[in-house]
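User: Teach me something about this protein's shape.
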Amino acid sequence: MPARDRKASTISPQMDLAELDSQEASELLAAALHPDPKSGILRLSDQPCLILRPEVIVSIQKQLEQTVGGSAKGILYLAGERSSDTGLKFLGALTSGVSEPLTMDGAKRIIDASALTGWGRTEIIHFDPDRGRFTVARHNSPIAKAYGPSKKPVCHFLAGWMAGIGRLLVGKELLCEELACVAQGHDRCE
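Assistant: First, the predicted structure itself:
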């Protein structure tokens, strides 16, 4: 295995992340990760992070559903929406920055970095900025896969996150609703 280049902690804006093979993606992430065992801090491109299994998020979600019922969906949605700004900074740091206002090119970089960090592969199906509408599909949602079978969509956090990113893309508040989910037996979440 080649030595890691600790200075290569970000990704060139010219690099097409969707075209990386598994080995290249592993090397890129390894170069961007900076663990400090003494302090217990892990950084990815100088942004604090942690490695968390999707089941942890799903356990919190299921406990919220048991405790507060239908309000859990709104809580998780708002958490996703409110974390989108910092998520954009985090993923932007990994991809050598994403400028605001967010453009379609910037959105593609965020989608690619999101896939690289394990959040599934998002695809923009439809984009109409004049009407403030867009449709996305997410393949391999870690939340849907960890949640297991459900009669209703379960990716409330990710729906909120997409609404927050969409707001940055179209310049106005959006409401994002998951209509189909892998947890319901669909091939992808939409």
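Now, about its shape. The radius of gyration is 17 Å. The CA atoms of residues 89 and 97 lie 8 Å apart. If you'd like, I can walk through any region in more detail.
User: That's plenty for now, thanks!
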